[in-house]
Design a protein that fits this description.
The protein has about 130 residues and is mainly alpha-helical. It has 2 domains: about 90 residues, no CATH class; about 40 residues. Helix content is about 45%, strand content about 5%. Helix 1 packs across helix 5.
């Protein structure tokens, strides 16, 4: 991969790293990429290092490969985040919050709105999917 393409891929993936990886890993890769991008501005050739970083994780490697084939970052990210193997991206059970104590509860498997343990009379408000 040319340095130009490596830099473009690195710049394009940085904003979506938190959607592709856990927060700590995303932050670490973002820092590494930013450092390398800055170094390339001084004339250093670092396309191999950028490629290595982007290939460290299956999701970023897949993202980069598809980006280089011409797919849009939004389309790539959306499809990767919805992959069955990406457990962080799996649809989560709806979550509800008690208006009286702010306790949160996941929707039970029966599909009914859960009840707050401390305030069973309260109508819980849905706060996620």
């Amino acid at each position: 991969m040319t340095q130009f393409k490596a830099i473009l891929a690195a710049q394009a993936i940085r904003p979506v790293l938190p959607e592709l990886l856990d927060p700590e890993t995303a932050a670490e890769i973002d820092r590494k990429l930013q450092t390398l991008i800055t170094q390339t501005e001084t004339g250093q050739t670092l396309n191999n290092q950028i490629t290595e970083i982007l290939c460290e994780h299956e999701t970023t490697q897949t993202w980069m490969r598809r980006y280089l084939k011409g797919e849009t970052p939004a389309d790539i990210t959306r499809s990767i985040v919805n992959l069955a193997g990406n457990m962080d991206a799996q649809p989560r059970e709806p979550t509800y919050r008690c208006p009286e104590c702010n306790a949160t509860k996941a929707e039970p498997s029966n599909g009914r709105t859960p009840k707050c343990d401390a305030h069973p009379h309260a109508t819980l408000q849905r706060i996620s999917p």
